[in-house]
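User: I'm putting together notes for a lab meeting next week and I want to include a structural view of one of the chains we've been expressing. I don't have a solved structure, so I'd like a prediction I can at least talk through. The sequence is below, exactly as it appears in our construct file.
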Amino acid sequence: MPHLPKKYGLRVKNMIYWYNYKRREASPPGHFRKGVNQMPINSCKCIDQWKELQPILERRRHEAGALIPVLQEAQKLYGHLSIDLMAYIAAQMNLAPAKVLGVATFYTQFRLQPVGKHLILLCQGTACHVNGSAAIEAALLDELGVDENEITADGLFTLTNVACLGCCSLSPVMMIGETAHGSLTPDTARQIIRGIRTKEAKA
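Assistant: Thanks for the context. Below is the predicted structure for the 203-residue chain, given as structure tokens.
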């Protein structure tokens, strides 16, 4: 099993054992083989739960190198890659669960925990660090009232630090959705959050 960051907890570490149990439970006689799952797609009890992902799986599950695009689409649909969702993808793509889990935990683009409606990616690269990203982080955490990677009480925000956003000329910078906010100060960072909350309250 790949090394797992401590923050993911024991539930992720136990994914393979859970998956093997579910695979035996759902597979018809003669369809279980160690390492991969040969279960027919319609026999899986959770097919309705992930029905939005089904067209993508049907189109791509036999393509070489399709796992990362499938995980990206799954995260886009459901917000994060839950243990159940990763196990389902492993089953339908005929992959060992350790492979899916290894890819999901290796690439920082993938999230294994739920996030708020607006995910704040705060750059902590060298340029941003030199220009005060630590103060921006402190102001944001105070404004949001949560720690890093937690969801605010209203469900709107999650703050995550990232190594680099590739916007060094805008440092210090953060991304919220598809929008980059650069040349931040603690005050402007707070104002951006308050502006989004105001818009959400009017929606």
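A couple of points you could mention at the meeting. The CA atoms of residues 97 and 112 lie 15 Å apart. The chain has a mean pLDDT of 82.

User: Perfect, that's what I needed.
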